[in-house]
Amino acid sequence: MTDLNALRDQIDALDQQLQDLLNKRADLAHQVAEVKRAEDPEPVFYRPEREAQVLRRIKERNAGPIGAEEMARLFREVMSVCLALEQPMRVAFLGPEGTFTQQAAIKHFGHAVESVPLGAIDEVFREVESGAVHFGVVPVENSTEGMVNHTLDSFMNSDLKICGEVELRIHHHLLSGPHTRRDKVTRIYSHQQTLAQCRQWLDAHMPAVERVAVSSNAEAARRLRDEWNAMAIAGDMACELYNLDKVQVNIEDRPDNTTRFLIIGRQDTPPSGHDKTSLLVSGKNRPGLLSDLLRPFREKDINLTRLESRPSRIANWSYVFFVDCEGHKEDPALTEVLDALDSDGTTIKVLGSYPKAVL
Ligand SMILES: O=C(O)C(=O)C[C@]1(C(=O)O)C=C[C@@H](O)C=C1
């Protein structure tokens, strides 16, 4: 058997090589930045389509024993650091610190970005529009609770582009604070969506305790710092941030509870090879509007991944449809669908074409 020291010597030698290679990679990213600056007076450093391609290839060719997901996450961090050398990035998210949206921002961009907490979804939109931050991250749908209407509504009045999506498995924990007297708990704080996602568990285990909806799970966790008769429901990040104790883990009613987040920016994203497109479609209310709207997708064999209607807010009982489909708006089949809808008197706004979530 090889002895421990000999194995550690081999690890040291490999670490040296890895370190040299990582620095060489960073050097190349630096050169890429120079080329971008030389070619464009307003260079775009963050390239979601390229990052998606790199991460997909890493997963495909991975031979183990490190799992493909873990390997991709390591490279996610490597690219995050390389991008920060090209340009330090500021990414706004629906705060405060410790929300699932912050977790989604870090999952998507890696730890080398500066994440900026904001108090409301429309503030995230405004800060990206004004250029105060490079990108924003907002929740859009949850597998148990459905759509986040604030986000959908914000798109109606915004020219921002969706340039990415993130999916996050959401686990909620029942938490207690430093002063909590567990036998005297009379209320539980959490965001209203979280309370809804844990409704059955709460009905079964804490039916008599008042449920108090607050602005975010992180705010719920924060309140436990100086209360003795309350508990909170929140995720790992908020739990760690406020140094709370887990009384019961994973109390969400559905074990596959997932939230989808969108990355919003000011630029269009070129095709990556595996893309999605989000559209906002409206037409004059008439019989058959929805089926007319869907027909071109059927004819071109384009898969719809989501269809949602929202009041248009222009007239009572008139609606807009949010449509997500597979493909990029530059794909010939999808271009034809968009042309067909356009000539049918339908108003279409392309909210963005972007790579399907890789991580
Ligand atoms: O290929 C580029 O355009 C780069 O800037 C390099 C790189 C990378 O590290 O691989 C870094 C940032 C971009 O978002 C995409 C990729």
From TrEMBL:
Keyword flag Isomerase: yes
Coiled-coil regions, chain positions: 4-38
EC number per UniProt: 4.2.1.51, 5.4.99.5
Every Prephenate dehydratase domain range: 90-266
Record-annotated Chorismate mutase domain positions: 1-90
Subcellular location: Cytoplasm
Record's protein name: Bifunctional chorismate mutase/prephenate dehydratase
The organism of origin for this protein: Alloalcanivorax gelatiniphagus
Annotated gene: pheA
